Amino acid sequence: MLESWSPEADNETVERAGPGVILPKKEWDDSIDATRRGVGLTRTAALGMVGPSVGLLDIGEMEDSYMFRVSLPGVAANERLFSCNIKPDGNVFIKGVSTTGEETVYRNSQLFKMKSQNLCPPGPFSISFELPGPVDDQQISTSFENGVFEAMVKKR
User: Fold this and answer.
1) Are the C-beta atoms of residues 154 and 136 closer than 8 Å to each other?
2) Where are the beta strands (DSSP E) in 89-146?
3) How far is CA 153 from each of CA 48, 58, 137, rounded to the nearest angstrom?
4) Among the listed ranges 1-5, 7-11, 99-103, 107-111, which one has the minimum average pLDDT value?
5) What is the spatial distance between Cα 70 and Cα 68, in angstroms, rounded to a whole number?
6) Which of 21, 41, 23 is nearest to 31 (CA)?
7) 3-state secondary structure 8-73
8) What's the whole-model pTM score?
9) More exposed terminus of the chain, fewer Cβ within 10 Å: N or C?
């Protein structure tokens, strides 16, 4: 269901597309035109703010340990290509290789030329950060699933 309306505070005509989606008329028209060409991006996507980024980080703390998780989309948990080194002072160094962000993708015997590229570029990367305090670098447990690397390490 499409309808037009003008907000009282602003005379700009706005298109409403279904429940909860309100776009200025020009942005709506531009989006429709772009979709006819195959790809339509609006709002944060149009600003290049889509897709998960490599290295987004969460850190948690308990009385006796720290936990962190790092977003690593497109990174394989291959021991030859991925490593995480945690020093006793709490410094963490992660390195690996991203396989996403390429200009062309070959899938199911078809070659796709990417129209938008917002994932991490392919190739090596490294991430370093510091945990809030010193750790026992011999008491670490890790997991790497669904593009998220997670580690728990005991405090010293």
Assistant:
1) yes
2) 91-98, 104-107, 110-113, 123-130, 135-145
3) 35, 14, 7
4) 1-5
5) 7
6) 41
7) CCCCCCEEEECCCCEEEHHHHHHHHHHHHCCCCCCHHHHCCCCCCCCCCEEEEECCCEEEEEEECC
8) 0.62
9) N
Return the sign of the alpha-carbon dihedral for residues 41, 45, 48, 51: negative
Residues with Cβ within 8 Å of 68's Cβ and at least 6 positions away in sequence, in order, are 57, 58, 59, 60, 92, 129, 131, 150, 151
Q: Residue 89 phi/psi, 5° resolution?
A: -80, 0
Task: Provide the β-strand partners of residue 57.
Answer: 70
Over the stretch 6-26, which tens digit does the pLDDT of each residue have?
Answer: 444 445 554 454 445 555 667
Cα 42 from Cα 20, distance rounded (Å): 15
